[in-house]
Amino acid sequence: MKKNSLLLSLSFLYLTLVMLGCKTEEPAANNLQINPPEGIAEQVLESETSYIFSASGNYMFSQLVFSAEMIKNDGTRFKIATTDKQSFTVLYKHDTIPEELWSRGGKDNIHVKGIVSCYGKSINGVKDTAYYEFYIPYKPNKPKITLLDTTITAGSMNATIGYFADGAMSYRIHYTALGETSQYYLDVNNKDDVSSVLTNLNSNKKYSIYLTAYNSSGSINSDTIVVGKKPDSQMSMVLIKTGTNLKYQFKLGIEFVNNLTINSVGIYDLDGNLKMSISAGINESFSVASLPSAIYILKVDVANDKSYAKSFLK
What we know:
The protein is mainly beta. It has one helix at 2-23, and strands at residues 33-35, 51-56, 65-71, 77-83, 87-90, 104-105, 111-121, 127-137, 144-153, 156-164, 170-177, 184-188, 195-202, 206-215, 218-221, 225-228, 236-242, 245-252, 255-257, 262-268, 274-277, 286-287, 295-302, 307-313.
């Protein structure tokens, strides 16, 4: 009997220890959750507006760490706010956001993706992280622009331009002939039209072309590309001398160019000293009778192009 009683006692003790062992396991931690602000539509955070985030769950709220970051195309992030308090305020200004290639999303793709992160530790020591995706209205990414094709017929040129900007809703193509003041543009109101043809360009001229991408939050320009004549047919200056009267002209190929903006015209000696300033424009005669006999250089500075020079004997 004593032996059986001892066995029963040992069995009860073993069962008790097993049950106690089960009780020593930590209960499952409640998942950490981010509570977004009330009243926001489609997870969009507007600029210069305060939004308060908080967290819920079985956590030590004194040890929570929040952060808000915008996401770039390459996966890296740009931090716009951080705090280690129980609640978290997000406030940003557009002029504090650098021009980067951002990951886009939201309605019409005119927003930059962002994420609020919350790092915390439960009262049982379990670490967890919660996330909330948001969107910021922002101007388009910088457009890419390229020349796709050119066709030339009888002195006229058509140039096909390709372009694209993430977040754009419309475009404007700007183009101007090198050295001229007249500027032209072509509006593209459909964001899905990512190529356009510039028609009736002068095949003897070189054109600078750039693109502006627009959405409701702003605009941004592309780099400039150059389309047109080859380097061996660039604009040249012609100097005509009749006695002591001179005039200068500009030619592209066989055509004269008259609608240029002239910054300055001067006559210099061979040592580079200015001897006379000239106010006469293109194809206007001026006199050099007052200059002593010598070799001189006429220099003409053309806006948006370069300076041209021709020597002459007085």
